[in-house]
Structure formats: C-alpha cells, structure tokens
C-alpha cells in the first residue's frame, strides 16, 4: 500500500481511537487519491470527525491494479473502501456507513434524518451516468433532460432553505454523499458531453463554493484527471485527452462568485 496521504487528529494522550481508511488509488499513477465515490464520501466524514479530535485518522491508498502482498493477504480481492477501527476491519459500504454512525466517536452527529433531502439527492449519479452514456437529445430543456432537471430541483431546494449545507449550517452525511457526485458531474459531464452546470443555478454554485472552502473536501477530492479516468473505465467511454500525461488539476473555481 502507498504512503499515507493524510494523518489528522492525533492526540498525545492516545485517548482517541485511530481509524484507518483504505481507499482506491489513482488508476493513472497508482498512488494519489482515486475517484471512488464511496471512498471520497467516507474520507470526508472521517476527516470532519478528526478535525473535531474525536478520532485520529489515517488514510492509505491501494492500487487495485497491482495490490501489494500484505493487502492481498489481509483482504484478498476485496476492493476499497475498507475501514479499520482498532483492529476491526469493515469491508462493505453499508457496514462502513453504519459503523461510522454507531461506533465511531462523534459519528452519530453527522447522520441526521431528513427524508426530503434523501429523496432529493437520490439517483442523481444514476441520471448522470445515463446522460453521458445514453442521452442523445440536444434539447437541454429542464423538463426533457433528467440530469439537468434534478440539478435544478437541488438548486431550488437550496435557494428555498437558504442554509450553507443541505440540512442546515453544519455538515451532515448528505453533504458528504452529494458533493463528490457533483464534482464527478462537473468534471465528467464536461469531459464527455461538453455539459456544464448552468450558472443560473446560483444556489447550487454557492453550495459548491461552501464545500470547496472546507479542508475536508480539499483533502479528499481527487484530481480532475482521476475523475475522468474513473468514469472512463467504469462506463467504457473514450476521451481524446491524454490525461495520464497531464499535471493533476483540481477544479474548485466558481463561475458566479460576483453574482448577487
């Protein structure tokens, strides 16, 4: 496995538990952060807890194209994310999420109940994948383009709530779920379909700006090229760009900062 890419939240007295999160490495260089959505989501959640000093966080990348012997010995072919809490390894996404919520100190505070938000962001990534692989219409009218329509609903919801994040002015699990997907949409839809999130969705862009300001997002966000590579490999798409030769970039600029 690669060198640790982040260590955060250590306490000298050792009272806080050390949590290790093993995530997928870049499919380009095999070392830096890859673009697995679940890895990004859990990385953000655990980083927030490390900032609060309820845990000590260690994040390690593993190249699944060439998994090292110690990884194969311990986990066979199980792909990351993998959470290790005081010697206990949790291997499945649903179990990792449940463990963070119920067993990681402070984790329960991230898991708020909000059915409206849960419904609002559900299936967003599925619509994105359908759009870049199957949606052929050139009509970008919101009523006829499912991805754009759902982005508009999220924008309108954020405008109505007028809070920094989805459920209020503090982060929740829903933000850790939504923002990695928005970043994939921002980078992937542009790369494969020349689609950009409309600037008229000002509430959505303000939300993304708030997320970009967070160290938890900046530390966990993969490079644009890794997002493109991940989507290309996952969906069998092609791109003319030679992304493996490019210097990694991280798109976090906001096109509407000067708008009211």
Topology:
Elements: E1 4-8, E2 18-24, H1 37-51, E3 56-62, H2 69-75, E4 82-85, E5 88-90, H3 93-102, H4 115-121, H5 124-133, H6 146-161, H7 173-193, H8 202-212, H9 215-220, H10 224-235
Parallel strand pairs: 2-3
Antiparallel strand pairs: 1-3, 2-4, 4-5
Structure, explained:
The protein has 260 residues and is α+β, with helices and mostly antiparallel strands. The protein is built from ten helices and five strands, in the order E-E-H-E-H-E-E-H-H-H-H-H-H-H-H.
Features:
globular, 5 strands, alpha+beta
Total E-strand runs? 5
Shape: globular
In spatial order, strands of the major sheet run 1-3-2-4-5
Unreliable sequence segments: none
Structural class: alpha+beta
N to C succession of SSEs: EEHEHEEHHHHHHHH
Average pLDDT number: 90
Q: What does the main sheet amount to? A: 5 strands, mixed
- Give me the number of helical elements: 10
Distance between the amino and carboxyl termini:
47 Å
Helix content: 40-55%
β-sheet strand percentage: 5-15%
Radius of gyration: 18 Å
Report a brief summary of the structure.
The chain is an alpha+beta fold. The mean pLDDT is 90. It is 44% helix and 10% strand.
